[in-house]
């Protein structure tokens, strides 16, 4: 199979531009270039902007995978991210892992495909990061943590040792989850929340009292 050389970023919003920035930091050794963005809300054009001179290639649905291409889904909302990732996977797309040069990944950690590790993130010993997970800047993934498919870990989050997130969990900026706590599928943890005990699937919890909305 051809080595991935051309990266397609799915989503040309703020996070898409961040992901483009982090790919630029990979340097020549990575052997990849940004081929462009896919975005359903933008017209195809030769360059997204003066600062991001990569084309908007078309809608997500119009994408047909080509040899040597890898996609990365730069979308924060886990449900939207998973829906898009699964539709692209069904078409035979290959997924690229964007791992910023400042990210630290333990030798014993396991990473799926389409993973984004932003600047200064940490994935510690024996942690598992499933497909299509984002760990944003300064996010900490402690030892033995399991992060389920499509989850989004925002900036400065602390997932302490042994935390288990089911698929599609959204953890807002600066939240902390205490050791060994489980979070059910598609739960949302509000910014700044300290999570002390299990969060049921599909619920939203937020600080200061971790009340259910
Ligand atoms: C928890 C969250 C998902 C709730 O969103 P929402 O359903 O739209 O809720 P609202 O904004 O309508 O707020 C509802 C109430 O919760 C409070 N609230 C919301 N988020 C809160 C938080 N993180 N901490 C404390 N209180 C919060 C609001 O003040 C409001 O209180 P009120 O009813 O007394 O006025 C959202 O506020 C949040 O924290 N998202 C994470 C955002 C983030 O980290 N983004 C990073 C992107 S890179």
From TrEMBL:
<dbReference type="InterPro" id="IPR001451">
    <property type="entry name" value="Hexapep"/>
</dbReference>
<feature type="domain" description="PglD N-terminal">
    <location>
        <begin position="6"/>
        <end position="85"/>
    </location>
</feature>
<dbReference type="InterPro" id="IPR011004">
    <property type="entry name" value="Trimer_LpxA-like_sf"/>
</dbReference>
<dbReference type="Pfam" id="PF00132">
    <property type="entry name" value="Hexapep"/>
</dbReference>
<keyword id="KW-0677">Repeat</keyword>
<keyword id="KW-0808">Transferase</keyword>
<dbReference type="InterPro" id="IPR020019">
    <property type="entry name" value="AcTrfase_PglD-like"/>
</dbReference>
<dbReference type="InterPro" id="IPR050179">
    <property type="entry name" value="Trans_hexapeptide_repeat"/>
</dbReference>
<protein>
    <submittedName>
        <fullName>Acetyltransferase</fullName>
    </submittedName>
</protein>
<dbReference type="InterPro" id="IPR041561">
    <property type="entry name" value="PglD_N"/>
</dbReference>
<keyword id="KW-0012">Acyltransferase</keyword>
<dbReference type="InterPro" id="IPR018357">
    <property type="entry name" value="Hexapep_transf_CS"/>
</dbReference>
<dbReference type="Pfam" id="PF17836">
    <property type="entry name" value="PglD_N"/>
</dbReference>
<comment type="similarity">
    <text>Belongs to the transferase hexapeptide repeat family.</text>
</comment>
């Amino acid at each position: 199979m051809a080595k991935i050389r051309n990266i397609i970023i799915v989503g040309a919003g703020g996070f898409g531009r961040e992901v483009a920035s982090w790919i630029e930091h990979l340097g020549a050794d990575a052997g990849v270039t940004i081929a462009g963005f896919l975005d359903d809300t933008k017209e195809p054009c030769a360059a997204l902007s003066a600062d991001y001179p990569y084309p908007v290639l078309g809608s997500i649905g119009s994408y047909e995978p080509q040899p040597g291409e890898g996609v990365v889904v730069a979308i924060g909302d886990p449900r939207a991210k998973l829906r898009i990732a699964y539709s692209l996977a069904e078409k035979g797309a290959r997924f690229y892992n964007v791992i910023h040069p400042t990210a630290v990944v333990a030798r014993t950690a396991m990473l799926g495909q389409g993973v984004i590790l932003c600047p200064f993130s940490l994935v510690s010993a024996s942690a598992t990061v499933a497909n299509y997970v984002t760990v944003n800047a300064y996010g900490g993934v402690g030892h033995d943590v399991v992060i389920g498919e499509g989850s989004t870990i925002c900036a400065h989050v602390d997932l302490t040792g042994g935390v288990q997130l089911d698929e599609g969990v959204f953890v807002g900026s600066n939240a902390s989850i205490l050791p060994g706590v489980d979070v059910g599928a598609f739960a949302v943890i509000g910014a700044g929340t300290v999570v002390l005990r299990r969060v049921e699937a599909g619920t939203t919890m937020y600080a200061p009292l971790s009340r259910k909305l």
